[in-house]
Amino acid sequence: MKTRLHLLTLLFSFFLIAAVSAQCPTENVTLSSQADVASFVANYPTCTTIPTPLNISGSDISDLSGLQFITKIETDLNISQNPILTSLQGLHNITLVGDDMSITNNGSLSDLTGLDGLQTISEDFAISNNHQLTSLSGLEKLESAGKLYFYNNKITSMTGLENLSQIGTGGLVISINDNLTSLSGLEGLQSISGNLSIGGNAQLSSIQALQNLDPATI
Q1: Which tens digits make up the pLDDT trace of 140-179?
Q2: What CA–CA distances, in Å, run from 11 to 17, 22, 83, 104?
């Protein structure tokens, strides 16, 4: 009897520890400093799927490497107003964003390396006002998004999006990217269920890379 009670106690303790260790946030998460990032890593080290919106926005945030345990965001992922953030390394295991994703106003970000595992964004994906962003490198595994929006970045081409094949009802918007000279990288795009809008890109003279896009889908 004592042995059985001891075993039951051990099993209960095991499941209790497992439940605590796998605990995930229940409210919106906002990381507004490097200390917040470290605290989140310490509090939720085994929460691989984030069930709430995740906002990363802080004047001293420079290192996201501790977030490497995250594989899915069930709702929104927002990375904005991080003036000294130069890399997205640490987000490389994220494969899915269940709703919207935005990368905006990150003044030191030159490419998107660190999003190497990202395959699907179910809703809108906005990349805007990143004034040092010259490359979309890091998005090579992205296959689909509900909408893609590129506005006021320094990208010269769409290289990095070679695996992208479909965009949903939100459509594709490429606007006011002054250094954009080519849409190279979009050759694999086959369908857009929404509108296609390309304008205000002063140096863009050809849309030849969209040759495989089926006009009937637009």
Answers
A1: 999 999 999 999 999 999 999 999 999 999 999 999 999 9
A2: 10, 16, 48, 47
